C-alpha cells in the first residue's frame, strides 16, 4: 500500500480512488496511512470492506487531517467505519464502532480529535456506539474543546454516565460555533438527571439538545426543564421512557 500511494502521488489528475475490498490492509494502517498524504490532489477515497479495525482509526484520522483536498472517504470493516462526507465545501466525519479496546479508547480518541483540529472545514462530528468513552472522558474532552469550528456534535449510544456530563459540558462551553448537540441512545443517563442536569447550564452556545432514547423519567425531565428555564433557550428533544409502557416526546421551542 505504501509503495502504491507513493507511486501515484505525482498524478495531478488523480482525484478519485477506489481501493475497496483489500482486506489484507486490516489492522496495519500504522504502516501505510501516512503515505496517503502524498495523494495531494485526491478528493474522494473509497476503502470499504478493507477490514478496518479500531486500532487503525487514529492513523487514518491523522492522514485525513493532512489531506486538505480530501472531501469524501470511507474506511470500513466488519465492526468499524470511518466516513467523511462533504457538502458546500464543508465536511462531516462519522466514526461507528463497538469494538474499540476499552483500555486504549481514551488516548486513541484524544489522538483522533487532536488530528481533526487541522481540518477547519470540519463542522459535524458523529461518534456512534463507541463503548468506553465514558471511562476515559477526562482524557479526550480537553482535546474536544479545541474543535472551535465544530457546529454539530453527536455522541450516539456511547454509554455516557452522569459523571461524564460535567466534563463534556465544560469542553463544549469553549466551542462557540457549536449549535447542535445529540446525546441520544445513552440509556445510562436515565434516572440520574438530578446530578447531571445542572451541568447543562454551561451549554451556552448550543441551540438544540437531543436526548432521545436516554431512558429519561418524568422526574429527570423536571430537572432538565428547570435548568433550561434558567439559561439559554435551547430547543430540547427528548423521548421519555419510564416505568409506564408508553413513550412521550417533548419538543420545546
UniProtKB/TrEMBL annotation:
<protein>
    <submittedName>
        <fullName>Leucine-rich repeat-containing protein 31-like</fullName>
    </submittedName>
</protein>
<dbReference type="InterPro" id="IPR032675">
    <property type="entry name" value="LRR_dom_sf"/>
</dbReference>
<dbReference type="InterPro" id="IPR042419">
    <property type="entry name" value="LRC31"/>
</dbReference>
Amino acid at each position: 500500500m505504501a509503495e502504491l500511494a507513493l507511486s501515484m502521488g505525482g498524478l495531478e489528475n488523480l482525484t478519485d480512488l477506489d481501493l475497496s475490498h483489500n482486506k489484507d490492509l486490516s489492522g496495519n494502517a500504522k504502516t501505510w496511512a501516512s503515505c496517503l498524504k502524498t495523494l495531494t490532489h485526491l478528493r474522494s477515497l473509497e476503502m470499504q470492506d478493507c477490514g478496518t479495525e479500531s486500532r487503525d482509526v487514529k492513523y487514518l484520522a491523522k492522514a485525513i487531517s493532512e489531506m486538505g483536498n480530501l472531501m469524501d472517504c470511507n474506511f470500513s470493516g466488519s465492526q468499524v467505519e470511518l466516513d467523511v462526507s462533504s457538502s458546500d465545501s464543508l465536511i462531516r466525519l462519522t466514526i461507528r464502532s463497538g469494538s474499540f479496546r476499552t483500555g486504549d479508547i481514551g488516548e486513541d480518541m484524544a489522538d483522533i480529535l487532536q488530528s481533526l483540529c487541522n481540518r477547519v472545514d470540519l463542522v459535524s462530528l458523529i461518534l456512534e456506539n463507541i463503548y468506553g468513552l465514558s471511562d476515559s472522558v477526562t482524557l479526550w474532552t480537553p482535546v474536544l474543546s479545541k474543535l472551535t469550528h465544530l457546529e454539530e456534535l453527536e455522541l450516539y449510544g456511547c454509554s455516557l454516565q452522569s459523571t461524564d456530563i460535567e466534563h463534556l459540558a465544560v469542553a463544549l462551553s469553549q466551542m462557540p460555533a457549536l449549535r447542535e448537540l445529540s446525546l441520544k441512545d445513552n440509556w445510562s443517563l436515565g434516572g440520574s438527571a438530578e446530578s447531571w442536569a445542572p451541568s447543562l447550564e454551561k451549554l451556552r452556545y448550543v441551540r438544540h439538545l437531543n436526548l432521545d432514547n436516554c431512558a429519561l423519567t418524568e422526574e429527570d425531565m423536571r430537572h432538565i426543564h428547570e435548568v433550561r428555564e434558567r439559561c439559554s433557550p435551547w430547543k430540547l428533544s427528548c423521548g421519555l421512557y419510564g416505568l409506564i409502557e408508553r413513550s412521550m416526546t417533548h419538543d420545546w421551542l
